[in-house]
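We were asked to recover a plausible sequence for a given structure. The inputs and outputs are reproduced exactly as logged, with field labels preserved.

PROBLEM: sequence recovery
POSITIONS: 256
GIVEN STRUCTURE:
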């Protein structure tokens, strides 16, 4: 496979730092790795960033990503985790890409988990006044149970300490799409024509394997892979190298 751009999209409350291991892995393989922060998600998030982030829409994030991609001289591979996986799907409706890798992706509008901490996490924002336009930060207790439970305790705290505030509007668009007149979380699956790889963790409490598989099944050219002993923080859990290696092999295969 001729080495191309990999454009990584992180999830909610995070930043480009979640891709440190993956980007290093793929750089060694010869890829050009782009790991931007979503708008207002830089590590040293300022008070102004926190104040402004609450009203940012998924569509704003998607617009920023499309602008980045328009500057590239080659079609990239999009690699998204969690909310970043949903953003990858949104962007791929209108931007030509070589392939899409969705790691435990956020669900497009209309796909809901039957039993999942996903909805618990979404409903947790309700205690914020005017939550649909508020900056949102989970507690360590919430995130350690729903997302970080396969990490050692000291690593859980290290990861959480790097979290930043997220847009209440974006989370509301994901959790309550029927109330969103802009249909920000809607994906027209037929418009996504590139190969799609969906990866799930068997112990993921946010994006369960059942939900991940249902997302994959909406794409004509899809590959689904479930990794045992992995949860929602698959990017940095023990054995993440196996996940990265599988992605690399898949990218090689689709170019044959």
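RECOVERED SEQUENCE:
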């Amino acid at each position: 496979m001729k080495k191309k751009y990999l454009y990584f999209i992180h999830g909610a409350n995070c930043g480009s730092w979640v891709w440190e291991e993956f980007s290093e892995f793929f750089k060694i393989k010869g890829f050009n790795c782009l790991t931007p922060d979503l708008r207002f998600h830089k590590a040293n998030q300022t008070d102004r960033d926190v104040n402004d982030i609450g009203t940012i829409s998924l569509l704003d994030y998607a617009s920023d990503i499309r602008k980045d991609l328009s500057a590239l001289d080659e079609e990239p591979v999009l690699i998204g985790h969690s909310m970043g996986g949903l953003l990858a799907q949104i962007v791929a409706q209108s931007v030509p890409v070589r392939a899409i890798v969705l790691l435990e992706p956020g669900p497009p509008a209309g796909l809901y988990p039957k039993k999942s901490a996903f909805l618990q996490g979404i409903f947790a924002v309700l205690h914020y006044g005017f939550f649909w336009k508020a900056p949102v930060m989970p507690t360590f207790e919430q995130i350690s149970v729903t997302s970080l439970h396969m990490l050692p305790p000291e690593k859980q705290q290290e990861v959480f300490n790097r979290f930043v505030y997220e847009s209440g509007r974006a989370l509301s668009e994901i959790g309550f799409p029927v109330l969103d007149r802009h249909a920000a979380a809607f994906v027209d699956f037929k418009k996504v024509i590139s190969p799609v790889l969906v990866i799930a963790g068997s112990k993921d409490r946010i994006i369960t394997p059942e939900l991940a598989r249902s997302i994959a099944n909406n794409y004509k050219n899809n590959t689904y892979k479930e990794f045992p002993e992995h949860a929602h923080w698959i990017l940095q859990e023990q054995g993440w190298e196996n996940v990265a290696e599988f992605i690399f092999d898949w990218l090689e295969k689709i170019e044959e």
